[in-house]
Amino acid sequence: MSRIIAVSNQKGGVGKTTTAINLSACLAEKGKKVLVVDVDPQGNTTSGFGVDKYNIEYTIYELMVGECTLEDCIVPNVIENLSLIPANVNLAGAEIELIDVDEKEYILKKQIDKISKYYDFVIIDCPPSLNVLTVNAMTTANTVLVPIQCEYYALEGLSQLIHTINLVRERLNEELEIEGVVFTMYDARTNLSLQVVENVKANLEQNIYKSIIPRNVRLAEAPSHGIPINIYEPKSAGAEAYRYLADEVIEREEN
Ligand code: ADP
Ligand code: MG
């Protein structure tokens, strides 16, 4: 059975895309079959895998508005064991265009349900908002993985996110669960990072991953080369952290 994980947090710049790319790549490295679905008009997950977001004919947008098929838009084997449904700025218009569509919250689910059986994991990278695209991702997903940046306002907005997840569970996807929280951009040199981790642990009842992603310059560089961290710099602290996170995600799946 496959597991579908939406990586979501309505804050921008907290490490969603970095986590979607590198967790997926590390799952693939461990032999899992992975489909990555980019649902952010910024298309950073797409370019992070080396796919030219400015020159693709079919993306998640064409899929969602019914202008292409899954076969048209899936980019197979961007790395070994990992395929991608790309996104680009075209998707920015989707929110308005989908307003009148029947069951607009289920558009993505109807598509992904047709192919999820071919994959061990489907990882969906969400945009930095709680809009119809994020709702589509949460309706499709089994779980939501929440990256939390180790900075002072880490908990801000989290209750809103949890509220949205609860609403989706009540109205659209009764099986949706919170996969867990993963701390990102942890800086061991500052007390602040440690305080944030302690504070979130004290205030959150959700599963918190033991793997903490360090602030690591290699993680910031890798996307400009279009290569995930485990291939770009296999021995970096960032690669090790995402491998460990992949182990934990697999372990959770098996239990
Ligand atoms: P989001 O998808 O939540 O907006 P990103 O994953 O795009 O966030 O990260 C925002 C910025 O921070 C990017 O420039 C990214 O390269 C950088 N970044 C993310 N995680 C790390 C990390 N652990 N160490 C260093 N830089 C990071
Ligand atoms: Mg992003």
Automatic annotation (TrEMBL):
In its UniProt entry, what is this protein called?
Sporulation initiation inhibitor protein Soj
For the AAA domain, which residue ranges apply?
A: 3-178
- Protein species of origin: Anaeromicropila populeti
Instruction: Quote the InterPro entries the UniProt record gives.
Output: AAA_dom, DNA_Partitioning_ATPase, P-loop_NTPase
The entry's family comment says:
Belongs to the ParA family.
Listed PANTHER family? P-LOOP CONTAINING NUCLEOSIDE TRIPHOSPHATE HYDROLASE, PARA FAMILY PROTEIN CT_582
Q: Which reaction(s) does its UniProt entry say it catalyses?
A: ATP + H2O = ADP + phosphate + H(+)
- UniProt subunit comment: Dimerizes in the presence of ATP but not ADP; ATP-binding is required for double-stranded (ds)DNA-binding. Interacts with DnaA.
